[in-house]
From TrEMBL:
Keywords of the record: Hydrolase, Manganese, Metal-binding
Keyword Protein transport among UniProt keywords: no
Name listed for the protein in its UniProt record: Amidohydrolase family protein Peptidase M20D
Xref: Gene3D superfamilies: 3.30.70.360, Zn peptidases
Pfam families listed in its UniProt record: M20_dimer, Peptidase_M20
Residues the record lists as binding Mn(2+): 121, 123, 157, 184, 399
Alphabetized GO MF terms: metal ion binding; N-acetyldiaminopimelate deacetylase activity
Entry note: cofactor: The Mn(2+) ion enhances activity.
Presence of the UniProt keyword rRNA-binding in the record: no
Cofactor requirement: Mn(2+)
Classification via InterPro entries: Amidohydrolase, Bact_exopeptidase_dim_dom, Peptidase_M20, Peptidase_M20_dimer
Length: 428
C-alpha cells in the first residue's frame, strides 16, 4: 500500500502542471520530497522539481546556482525585493518512523560509503511551505508590489550551500533583497505554533582538526617515546578552561572534542593522534578568542611536555564555517505582529536561542547587512505533544531517525505565516 501511494504521488508530480496554489497538492508534494531525499551536493531531482513547479507558476527560474541551487524571480512593479529561502538537502540517517511514505533511499556519501538517506531535519517541510507561499503570492499580485525572489539552497547540512550560492553571484546576478525570510522546523513545539527569537538565534559553528605528532615506542618504555595520547588528554582538559575562564560569563560558548583517534594496540605508543572539535559562539570576538585559544593550548601543552619544534601540533580551522544567525529585531517585531493576526497571538511565542548552526545567516551578513528573520515552525503532532506533556514519552529531536512532523497542520501554519509576512513586506 505504501509503495503504491508513493508511486502514485511520484507519477502525478512528474506529469502534472502546477500553475497556481489552487493546483498545488501540498501533502502529495511533501510526501514525495520525504520519500525521495537527496544528500548535500546531490540534490539534482529535488531542485529539478522545485524549478519546474516555480516555472509553471510564472517565475523566471535559473538552475545550477552554486551547485544544485535554484533561483526564482517574480517581478510585480516598483517596490521592495523579498527573498524567501528554503533548503533542500537531507541527512545520512536510516528512517525508523514507520510512516507509509518513509524514505527507503540510499546514496553514496562523500566518504564513499553507501548510506541511508532521510529528511530528518524538516527540509521537506521547508520546501513545501516555501513553494506554496510562492504560489500564493503569484496568485495575489494585486495585493503586493515589488520583486519576490525564492531560492532553493543546497548543502545546508554541510554549512556550504549559502556560501556557494553567494559566491556564484546570487545577489549580483539576480537581485539584492531588502528583506530575507526563512523558516526551520522546531522539534520541541507543537504543530500549529510558531516560535521566534529576536537578535542572536543560532551560533557561529567552526570545525577544528588538531593533528598531534609524537615519537612511537613500546608501552613499557615510555621514556623513549613522545606520547601523543597523553598530550591529547592534556589538551582536551585544558580546552574546557576556554569557556569557563577566558570568555565573559554571560557570553555563550562551546568547545566539544567529538572525535579522538590514535593507536592500534595496548602496548604500543603511537606516533600520532587526531582530535576533531566543534566550536560554537555568537559574537565574532568570542569566536576569535576560542579559536586562538585552541591553537595556543595545543602548542603550549606540547612545548611544556618537551615536544621539539618539528613535532608541534598542527591546528586547522576547516573552511565550512557557519556564521551566527542574527534576526533583525525590528523585522522580528513587525513580522510577529503580522503572524499573530493570522494564526492567533497564543500560537506565536518567543523561544530560546540555540547553539546549533544555520547558514541562512550568511544572506544577512553580506556588505549590505540585509534585515533577516528565520521563524521556528512547530511540527509535533497533537497526540505526541499531549503524551509528552503528561511525561509519557520523549520528543524525537531533529536528526533523529524517529523525527516525524505533523505535515498537514505544520505546513498549513507555515504557509499562512509566511504568506502574511511576505504580503506585509512587499508594499511600496
Amino acid at each position: 500500500m505504501s509503495l503504491v501511494r508513493i508511486a502514485t504521488i511520484t507519477t502525478v508530480l512528474l506529469a502534472s502542471s502546477v500553475t497556481s496554489a489552487q493546483d498545488f497538492d501540498r501533502l502529495g508534494f511533501y510526501e514525495y520530497l520525504h520519500a525521495n531525499p537527496e544528500l548535500s551536493f546531490q540534490e539534482e531531482k529535488t531542485s529539478a522539481l522545485l524549478a519546474r513547479t516555480w516555472r509553471q507558476a510564472g517565475f523566471e527560474v535559473t538552475e545550477q546556482v552554486g551547485g544544485h541551487g535554484v533561483v526564482g524571480l517574480l517581478e510585480n512593479g516598483e517596490g521592495p525585493t523579498l527573498m524567501i529561502r528554503m533548503d533542500t538537502d537531507a541527512l545520512p540517517v536510516q528512517e525508523q518512523t514507520g510512516l507509509p511514505y518513509a524514505s527507503r533511499a540510499k546514496a553514496i556519501e562523500m566518504t564513499g560509503q553507501e548510506v541511508h538517506v532521510m529528511h530528518a531535519c524538516g527540509h521537506d517541510v521547508h520546501m513545501t511551505v516555501g513553494t506554496e507561499t510562492a504560489l500564493n503570492l503569484a496568485m495575489q499580485k494585486e495585493a503586493w508590489q515589488g520583486t519576490l525572489m525564492v531560492i532553493a539552497q543546497p548543502a545546508e547540512e554541510r554549512g556550504a550551500g549559502a556560501k556557494a550560492m553567494l559566491n556564484d553571484g546570487l545577489f549580483e546576478r539576480f537581485a539584492t533583497p531588502d528583506y530575507n525570510l526563512s523558516l526551520h522546523t522546531l522539534a520541541t513545539l507543537p504543530a500549529g505554533q510558531i516560535g521566534y527569537v529576536p537578535g542572536w538565534m543560532m551560533a557561529n559553528v567552526d570545525s577544528v582538526d588538531i593533528q598531534l605528532k609524537g615519537v612511537g615506542g613500546h608501552g613499557a618504555y615510555p621514556h623513549n617515546a613522545k606520547d601523543p595520547i597523553v598530550l591529547a588528554a592534556s589538551i582536551i582538559m585544558d580546552l574546557q578552561t576556554l569557556v569557563s575562564r577566558e570568555i565573559h560569563p554571560v557570553e555563550p560558548g562551546v568547545v566539544t572534542v567529538g572525535s579522538i583517534h590514535a593507536g592500534t594496540k595496548h602496548n604500543i605508543i603511537p606516533d600520532s593522534a587526531t582530535l576533531q572539535l566543534t566550536v560554537r559562539s555568537y559574537s565574532d570576538a568570542t569566536r576569535e578568542t576560542l579559536l586562538k585559544g585552541i591553537r595556543r593550548i595545543a602548542i603550549k601543552n606540547a612545548e611544556a611536555m618537551g615536544f621539539p619544534e618539528d613535532l608541534l601540533p598542527v591546528v586547522e580551522v576547516k573552511d565550512e564555517y557557519t556564521p551566527a544567525l542574527w534576526n533583525d529585531p525590528e523585522l522580528v517585531a513587525r513580522s510577529v505582529a503580522v503572524m499573530k493576526s493570522v494564526i492567533g497571538a497564543a500560537n506565536v511565542i518567543e523561544v530560546t536561542k540555540e547553539m546549533g548552526g544555520e547558514d541562512f545567516a550568511r544572506y544577512g551578513r553580506t556588505d549590505e547587512k540585509i534585515p533577516s528573520f528565520m521563524i521556528r515552525l512547530g511540527v509535533v503532532p497533537d497526540a505526541k505533544w499531549e503524551a509528552f506533556q503528561r511525561g509519557e514519552t520523549n520528543l524525537p529531536s531533529l536528526h533523529s531517525p524517529f523525527f516525524a512532523p505533523d505535515p498537514a497542520k505544520s505546513i498549513d501554519t507555515g504557509v499562512k505565516a509566511m504568506t502574511a509576512m511576505a504580503l506585509d513586506l512587499l508594499q511600496n
